[in-house]
Structure formats: C-alpha cells, structure tokens
Prior knowledge:
Elements: E1 4-8, H1 12-23, E2 28-32, H2 35-45, E3 49-52, H3 61-70, E4 79-83, H4 88-96, E5 101-104, H5 109-128, E6 137-143, H6 150-163, E7 171-175, H7 183-186, H8 194-198, H9 208-214, E8 216-217, E9 222-225, H10 240-251, E10 256-260, H11 267-273, E11 278-283, H12 287-302, E12 310-315, H13 326-333, E13 337-341, H14 345-354, H15 358-361, H16 366-380
Parallel strand pairs: 1-2, 1-3, 3-4, 4-5, 6-10, 6-11, 7-9, 7-10, 11-12, 12-13
Antiparallel strand pairs: 8-9
Helix pairs in contact: 2-3, 6-16, 10-11
Amino acid sequence: MSAKILVVDDDLESLKLIGMILQAKGYQIIAARDGQQALEKAFQEAPDLVILDVMMPGLDGYAVCQRLRADPRTSTIPIIMFTAKAQLTDKVIGLQSGADEYLTKPIHPRELIAHVEAMLARAARFKATARPSLKAKVIGFLGCKGGVGTSTLVVNVGVALARGPAQGKKVALLDFRLGMSTLALQLGLTPRESLQQMIEQPIGTLNAEAILAQMERHPSGVMVLGGTPAPLGTAKPIPPLHADAITRHLGAVVDYILIDLGSDLGEVNRSLLRLVDYVLLVIEPHRIALLLAQAMLAGLEEIGVGRHRVGVILYHSIAAAVSLDRGTVESFLQQEIKAIVSPAAELAFQAAEQGQPMLLLQPESVPAMQFHQLAEFLTSL
C-alpha cells in the first residue's frame, strides 16, 4: 500500500501542485487548508508523513507542529515544513517546533520527491527498530513554582492509586531531576543512584527489565525511580533522550506512570510532555502563584500542551484566615480546578518526620480522602 501524506497549505494552487507531484509518484494525498483542519485530519487519518506550510490563518505551522508532537497519536509522524519563509531564524523555529526537515519554496519537484522518499525511508527504519508502545497512562505533575506540594501529590496520589482504583496494577513514580528529589524520602525509602547509572549507559542498552530491576518497591505497591536529595547542579543532568527512553520502556510494562516534573519547561520536561496523557498543574491560593500559573499555562500551550490536557490542583499547604477561593482562581486562570487539597500542617509535618505518605499515616483524614478522589479522577481519563 502506498504511503499516505497529509499536505497542509492555505494556498489552493500550492495545495493542488504539491498534491499532483506526489500523486504522480503513487502517494495517497490528504489535503488541509488550515491548522485546525490539519490537526483533525492527522488524528483521524494517521498519515505516514505531513508536509506543512507555516503561514496560515488561525493556527500557524509552528503551532500545528507542536501539537502534533505533543499528542501520543501523532508524536512520531515525520513532518516536513515547506514554506516561503527562508530566513535562518524561521528554520530554527521550525525545527525547534518539532519538524524533521525544513524546505523552502520554490523547489524542483524532483528534489521534493527525494526529500519525501528519504523521510519515509527513515521512518520505516525507525519502525523496524521501534521503541515500545506505551500501554501505561502517563500523568505529569507540574508545579507553578517550587514548594507548592508537587512531590507530595505524586507520592500520595500514587499510593492512592495502588491501594484503590489501580489495586493489582503496576504504578510507577518517576522523578528525572538529579538533585533535590524527595520521592524516596517521603516513602521512607533510601534514595539510590540508579538513575545516574542509567544515563551513563548507551540508550540502546536500556530495556524494561533492567529499569524495573533498578526501581525501589514500597509496601503500598508503588515503584519509584528518582534522583537523590543532593543539591541541584551537583550531578550531571539527564539527557532528554534517556528520559524519553526510560519512560517509553517502562510505559510498555506498567499501567500508570506518575512523573514529578518539578516546576520548569526545560528540555527534559518538553521531551516528557510529549508522552504525557494529562498534566496536573499544582498551585497555591495566592496572587503570586496565580501569576506564575498563568505563565505556565501559556508556556504549555506554546509547546503544544493544550488546556484540554491540563487540570489545576489547588493545594493549601497552610491554613490561612484569608485566601483566594475556587471561583476567583478559576476566573483568573480561565481553567477548571480538578481537585482541592485542604491544609493539614500537623499531618504534613508528621509525614515528613516519619517518612510516610499522609494518606497512610492518617487514612481517614480530609487530605487522604482528597488524594483518593484525585486517583479516581485519573483512572477516569
């Protein structure tokens, strides 16, 4: 069967010309004249290749490319940007958006066909050595800033999953920050340097069995792979390709992966966000946190993580006589709050001192019930 190619261009004449050139070589053509239509057809038709214009009304080619890369259904489809924008900065932006190649108009038909054939051949080689498909549901926990309770949420929601709606299934907690990692400590486990050792290995030697062997097990049923409590910047950072490979291999054999993303949109997190099914943005109920959350939502949209894939968690770390209410927060962010965690300073202190999740320390507490509700929500996604 001939390859199926999605051609996206708002100029009808260009669309027809590209289509004719490709059809003459036996390719099946799907046409789209704007960014939104391109996304819809990409999700519906699963093309083998996308040829994408940049300058279009509504969503431009950069935004379309980012969204295709961010969605698991289309993240590995090869993309050729084909545009009249010929400046070096345009090409850099295109490649940073996720394009595999950047070609400028005009181009000789034979050269276009040569690039198409080379890209399809490269994709075929990739499939021949395909990375494992993800059966796991992957959830990212992202703080609007440090200290809002992101790691605490990962630990307690992970335990709630393992002991509740996902009982009997494999739940993995990941933290790719090589420093200031507290996942193991909050579970009363001894942090290992397994992650540091993995990044020293060639990616081709990584596999699910080896990764599972390096993970720590907690009696609640969760498995943990994270960095150490060492200060940030004292260890070699994890390469994005290693983080991607570890997540993909693990995602082929477990049922749930909860990733502590910290509070940044750096290179590693951008790579991981392509694999994430849903992002929980953790915030506090005050003005500065809302401003930072607003910026984070905009940053997520810029890299293709739409608001439909993001839920806000309002985390009250301390009891305050005055704080912003749910309606005010939702109105400011224009985003629905999916869960609220009530203040429990004494319980949080005891949990930290004893190395136990709050949910296990006081199973009948209000926060414990809220962690269980959030776990139920995640299983419904």
